[in-house]
Design a protein that fits this description.
By secondary structure, this protein is mainly alpha-helical. It contains five helices and two strands.
Length: 111
């Protein structure tokens, strides 16, 4: 999503996504970076629904995998639950990761 420099975080979009998936019967758990939550304080009604991604020094961002994506996929694998993300998990960036075999089989069916 494009935001002009200096604009606030699009919490309204997060709120809309939560509402959409909850209407479909899903329990939502939006994942956010600690830095995002610190820089852009979410509205109180959203804060209780957000899951803070653990801080990871070598988070894989340079390889095309960020810590939040790894965290989301790990949660989906652990709890065998559907997940929503805009990443393409078929990309080479994931081929060397421990989650690659799961992503190629059960994981893609849950995305």
């Amino acid at each position: 999503m494009f935001r002009p420099k200096g604009s606030s975080y699009p919490w309204d979009a997060v709120r809309c996504a939560i509402k959409f998936y909850e209407k479909l019967g899903f329990m939502t758990q939006p994942v956010c970076h600690q830095a995002t939550l610190a820089r852009h304080s979410p509205p109180a009604e959203l804060r209780k629904k957000l899951v803070q991604c653990p801080v990871v020094d070598d988070d894989g961002r340079q390889e095309g995998r960020g810590s939040e994506r790894i965290f989301v996929v790990t949660l989906a694998k652990t709890y065998e639950c559907p997940f929503v993300d805009n990443s393409n998990y078929r990309e080479q960036a994931w081929s060397g990761h421990d989650l690659w075999p799961w992503l190629q089989k059960a994981g893609l069916a849950l995305k």
